[in-house]
Amino acid sequence: MHVTRHTKRRRRVIWEEWSLTAKLLTIMMTLMLVVLSGTSAWVLENLRSSLIERTDAQLIQASEALAIQAAETVLAPSPLASSEDRSPTEDSLRQLLPGTYYVQFYDSEGSEVYSPVAPLDGNEPQLPVIDQQTVTTMQGAPFTTDGSQSQWRVRALRVENSQLLVAIAVPFDQDIDAVGERARNTVLGIGMLALALVAGVGYFAITNTFRPLHDIENTASKIAAGDLSQRVSTYPSNTELGRLSAALNTMLGHIEDSFDGRKQSEKRIRQFVSDASHELRTPLVTIRGYAELYRQGALTDPDQIGQAMGRMESEAKRMTVLVEDLVQLARLDERRPTEIGPVDMTRLVRDGAADALAQAPDRDISFIGLDGEDAQQTPMILGSEARLRQVIVNLAGNAVRHTTEGTEIEFAVGVVDVPHQQQAPQAPAEARRPEARKRGLPVPNFLRLPTSWGQKPPAEAPSPDAAASSQQDTPPSAQSAGPSPTGPHGTTASASVPSGDAPSQAIPTSGVTHSNPFVTGPLELGEDLSGFPYGRVRFELRDHGEGIAPDQVSRIFERFYRLDSSRGRDTGGSGLGLSIVKAIVDSHSGAISVHPTPGGGATFRVDMPVPGPDSVRRQASRATSQATPRKDIP
User: 36 and 161 share a domain?
Assistant: First the structure.
């Protein structure tokens, strides 16, 4: 039992070691051999049966005529002749026999009447008892009997018009065997030729069929060696190889992209860790140096101690800013869930210009349209208002830090490439104070207040002129919009939505945002916004300072990259502000670029996609589902 299992296991191992070509060729040859063997056996057996049937037909035809002629010619004149007179009769009977026939006469009791007439000496059939009962039972049907040298076909019948019985036999196996031998040799030769032909054609067909698999094997070997750019040859898509090659090429593309992404990620991580450690090392060294000076007693004067504490506090704040920026970049890289909703870029840009004017009153800051005229209302976009506001704040802070006093800074916003049927309506021009109208910047009331940012001026009864001016400054849609959202520093930022029909691509302000205008989730705006098919809302921050050197433009959005000292004074930034801006814009399916400002300076251009109908419906559905109140459980 153990030997049998071991033998089977060994056979299975040997079979598994064969190549797929050898296995298929062996199976095909085995099936061909079985088919040829079965076909040859069937053909030879049918041939033998056919030859026997032909012999029987000849025997029946010859025996009928022979029996009658023998009885009339030989036996009728002397039926009771003695044995001495049999020679002439036998000679006469032999002359009547055709070829190799054997004849024996019997009486009704089965006794031989004459000696048999045998055409071949030494080869006689071994006949059974031939009597009347046998003849009646056989009914003249031929049967086979053995002989001394061969087999015979025998027919027993009664001679017509007499009491004699006759058995006529003829040898058949020698002729049939000779024909069968020739047929077997012919079939064997044809079978061997067919096997050889099938083996050759099969090997050629299998080898050519499996050649793509060998190509795939070679490609896989090259990929395993590290060449991820290799691809499998393509084949018709309606074939198995075509589908396999397409799937493999797609998989290889994903693998290559994954490896490239991993390499780039590792490179960025190494660079990030190196830059972060370098940036953190400088303030840490400063803090440690002052701490050691104080511990060693080198700082004894109160002014020196105050100066040291101030420097330590300044460096600690610098580290805080750096760490906060690093955390924000990490969160942007992770694409954590954030609030997504309709965003009015016109209002954000106007608020950013107002904030910049408050922080840098020595700059000439204006809020205009892309064409230099008054800014018009732009379509609503989808995104995170807090992050988009940070984009404007970072760019504005960057412009203020790297320009000198009196530099002109323009906050421009508009819409670009919107289809004609989706153009945003034009908002009516807002009334502005004479000193601000020339630059297009509406001057909020709080910018002229001597009080702090969050305080409100005492309520006074407005004069008729002031009331009229107030009505003129406020667009119709904003007059009944209810409380405005609170802007930075506790100020009120008006959306200034124009009257008239809303653009078809704008996010509706009813039905979706009545309870909660935002939904929480990953910031995925969909591939339908790729390439700005519905147009773009463009924000440009233009400064008229010294500009940016061309060799620095390509690296300006890199992390920890700082412009050279010719760009402006030392600002103490972390070098991550523009990197954060780019990460936020990229997460909104937008684009950011840097261009020289005509006449000198730098222009930062931000393009945000206008959402299409599918994005609007998807956002409205998500907002509605999250705004549905839950039923209280009793």
Answer: yes
